[in-house]
Amino acid sequence: MVGGRPYVTWVRDVLDNWLVQSEGEKRDDPNFPPLGRVITEDWKLLVDALAYHCDAFLTIERRLFTQAPVIQRYTGLRVLRPTTYRDLLAPWVALYT
Predict the structure, then answer these.
(1) Exposed, middle or buried by CB within 10 Å (0-12, 13-18, 19+), for 64?
(2) Are 79 and 56 in contact (CB under 8 A)?
(3) Which helix (H) or strand (E) covers residue 57, if one does?
(4) SS3 of residue 2 by DSSP
(5) Minimal CA–CA distance to 73: which of 30, 44, 35?
(6) Between 67 and 5, where is the model more confident?
(7) Predicted confidence band at 2 (pLDDT cuts at 50, 70, 90)?
C-alpha cells in the first residue's frame, strides 16, 4: 500500500498495460450538448470517459450522480458512486478473499 491509498498501487499496476493497450488509439472528441444539469467541467470528464469507451464513471459528486439516468439514457455511460459500485461487486468479493 503506497501512502495509505490502495488505489494508487492498483493504478500503478495497470498503468503500463493501459498505455500499451491504448497506444495508437485515436480518441474521438464527441461534442454532445450538455445534458440535464451537468456542469461544463463535469461534462468534459464525461466526454473523456466516452472517448475512451468506458462503461461507467465513478463520482462522489451528488449533483452529477443525480443526473445519472439522463446521462445513461443519452450516452449509455453509467454514472456510479463508489458505494454503488461496491454493492455491484459485493457478490464476487468472496472469490478474491
Answers:
(1) buried
(2) yes
(3) strand 56-58
(4) strand
(5) 35
(6) 67
(7) very low
Strand partners, 58: 80
Q: Are 58 and 66 in contact (CB under 8 A)?
A: no
- The DSSP secondary structure of the chain, one letter per residue, reads -BTTBHHHHHHHHHHHHHHHHHTTPPPP---PPP-TT--HHHHHHHHHHHHTT-SEEE---HHHHHTHHHHHHHH-PEEE-HHHHHHHHGGGGGGG-
Q: What is the DSSP letter of 44?
A: H
Q: Which three cell numbers stand for residue 30?
A: 464527441
Q: What is the reported pLDDT for 7?
A: 60
Q: If DSSP codes are grouped into helix, strand and coil, which group holds residue 40?
A: helix
